[in-house]
């Protein structure tokens, strides 16, 4: 839900409950008194990403984010968490609101300029994720970078479809969710399970699921102050 929409609803004292709005700004009850959500704010996943980077020894990383509230606030939260975790940021690269194919290639080149920072922390929408992978493929830079991506990529197939080689080894974040058994049974006949094997590694407060060369980080269920 867009922050501007929330402001209008709050002005007229109309309660809102969002299933997907993760903006950190929306936690400010002095501005958004009538807003609630059932997902954690981006500060939670930013902290998780810093912890994951530290755990795997990724102590020198680049960041990549969309221009706008989601990307800017998410990376700002990650930068703070990274400082506390001892993770250094070599450079911060931004994706403009309007992007050409040439601009995507320039972004990839910028990320490759620092040879010791091969891990890229991303707060990027799924279309831009896909276009970055496509540019890497066009530039023959497969497997040159490892991505640690936010829930906008999460478990979605769209960013990696047709670019699986470039996405190999990616780590993505998404809130832990519960299955609705009746719904799962209803749609299971339409879903093809492409997971050959899964290995679950318990790491403090995270479950790390290794699936078809991709790593998905599932955040634990938590009581949030909404």
From TrEMBL:
<dbReference type="InterPro" id="IPR050726">
    <property type="entry name" value="mGluR"/>
</dbReference>
<keyword id="KW-0812">Transmembrane</keyword>
<dbReference type="GO" id="GO:0016020">
    <property type="term" value="C:membrane"/>
</dbReference>
<keyword id="KW-0472">Membrane</keyword>
<keyword id="KW-0675">Receptor</keyword>
<dbReference type="GO" id="GO:0004930">
    <property type="term" value="F:G protein-coupled receptor activity"/>
</dbReference>
<dbReference type="InterPro" id="IPR000337">
    <property type="entry name" value="GPCR_3"/>
</dbReference>
<feature type="domain" description="Receptor ligand binding region">
    <location>
        <begin position="5"/>
        <end position="183"/>
    </location>
</feature>
<comment type="similarity">
    <text>Belongs to the G-protein coupled receptor 3 family.</text>
</comment>
<dbReference type="Pfam" id="PF01094">
    <property type="entry name" value="ANF_receptor"/>
</dbReference>
<dbReference type="InterPro" id="IPR028082">
    <property type="entry name" value="Peripla_BP_I"/>
</dbReference>
<keyword id="KW-0325">Glycoprotein</keyword>
<keyword id="KW-1015">Disulfide bond</keyword>
<dbReference type="InterPro" id="IPR001828">
    <property type="entry name" value="ANF_lig-bd_rcpt"/>
</dbReference>
<keyword id="KW-1133">Transmembrane helix</keyword>
<dbReference type="InterPro" id="IPR000162">
    <property type="entry name" value="GPCR_3_mtglu_rcpt"/>
</dbReference>
<protein>
    <recommendedName>
        <fullName>Receptor ligand binding region domain-containing protein</fullName>
    </recommendedName>
</protein>
């Amino acid at each position: 839900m867009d922050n501007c929409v929330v402001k209008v609803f709050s002005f007229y004292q109309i309660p809102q409950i969002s299933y997907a709005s993760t903006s950190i700004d929306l936690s400010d009850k002095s501005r958004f008194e009538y807003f609630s959500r059932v997902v954690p704010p981006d500060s939670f996943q930013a902290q998780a990403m810093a912890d994951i980077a530290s755990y795997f020894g990724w102590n020198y990383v680049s960041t990549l984010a969309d221009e706008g509230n989601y990307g800017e606030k998410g990376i700002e939260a990650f930068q703070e968490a990274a400082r506390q975790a001892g993770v250094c940021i070599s450079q911060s690269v931004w994706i403009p609101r309007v992007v050409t194919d040439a601009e995507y290639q320039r972004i990839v080149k910028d990320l490759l300029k620092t040879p010791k920072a091969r891990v890229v922390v991303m707060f990027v929408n799924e279309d831009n994720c896909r276009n970055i992978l496509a540019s890497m493929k066009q530039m023959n830079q497969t497997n040159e970078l490892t991505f640690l991506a936010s829930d906008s990529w999460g478990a979605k197939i769209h960013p990696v479809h047709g670019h699986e080689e470039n996405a190999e080894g990616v780590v993505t974040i998404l809130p832990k969710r519960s299955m609705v058994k009746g719904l799962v049974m209803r749609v299971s006949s339409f879903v093809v399970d492409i997971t050959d094997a899964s290995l679950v590694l318990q790491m403090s407060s995270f479950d790390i699921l290794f699936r078809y060369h991709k790593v998905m980080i599932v955040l634990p269920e938590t009581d949030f102050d909404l």
